Amino acid sequence: MNRIIVILLIVVTVFSCQKVENKKKNWPVASEKTEVAINDSVIDNNTKEVTIKLPNNSYAIVTLTPDQYTDNDIPDALKVDLYKPISVKIFDLKTKKELQNVSLDGVYYSESDDNISIGDFNFDGKIDVVCLARALSYRDFYSFNIFLATENGYQLNKDFSEITDVPLAYMKLDAKNKRITAVREAEWDETWLYQVSNNKLILIHNKSSSRSFDDEYDYSTSNDSIK
User: Fold this and answer.
1) Which domain holds residue 192?
2) Residue 225 maps to a domain
């Protein structure tokens, strides 16, 4: 009698499982989630993607690849994870469609720990990329590599990168007048104003002031009317 009950239970269980599986075939297939996780990085063996929020309901995805140091004089303690850009694509936040011919007015930063930023630093209408270069021996400041967009891909520009060789608080881009303002905020505040012409930088103004003594020094190197 017990054997008959056990056999009946097995038959009922198998029948129920088959019924569930058949029912599953008629369930709607869940669509793949296409929502973008703003400011999260996706890393695989060869590339890293960083998402940056932009104005007008858009965002940028910066694709990077690992890079290596060529300067052996940099102490290991100041080295960081180096990357160089492969591409920058702009997308509409709602439709997720890629946008073409987008120009940026200003510098836009990733909100994660990637320390990647983008902007048009040489004012040619293309989007340039800024990546970490090394730590500076001053608090938690870093210098950066500035890669300019060219017909042959992104190229490291040492002249533009040297702007960040001092501990900067931020940079401002003036597309109308093609000028870059670099600002340091510390015990001594300092401002550098550069004119950009034909992918070249001209320092036209350097102003320094002390927060402690209200001393102010102006190291202007040329006429402020350079265009």
Assistant:
1) 168-227
2) yes
**pTM for this entry:** 0.74
Q: For residue 135, give Cα distances in angstroms to 107, 151, 199.
A: 21, 30, 26
- pLDDT value, residue 215: 53
Cα–Cα distance measured from residue 108 to residue 112, given in angstroms and rounded to the nearest whole number: 12
The confidence score (pLDDT) of residue 1 equals 53
The Cα–Cα gap between 185 and 215 comes to 15
The per-residue pLDDT for range 70-107, each reduced to its tens digit, is 888 899 999 999 999 999 999 999 999 999 999 899 99
CA 15, chain centre distance (Å)? 56
104-137 b/e (C-beta count within 10 Å ≥ 16 → b): beebbbbeeebbbbbbbbbbeebbbbbbbbbbbe
d(CA 68, CA 82): 6
Residue 135 pLDDT exceeds 60: yes
Residue range 40-55, pLDDT digits in tens: 565 566 899 999 999 9
199 within a domain of the structure (yes/no): yes
Are 83 and 158 found together in one domain?
Answer: yes
Instruction: Give Cβ neighbours of residue 44 (< 8 Å, ≥ 6 apart).
Output: none
Domain boundary among 151, 166, 181: 166
Decide if pLDDT at 122 tops 50: yes
Tally the domains of the chain: 2
Three-state DSSP state, 31: coil
Co-location of 143 and 97 in the same domain: yes
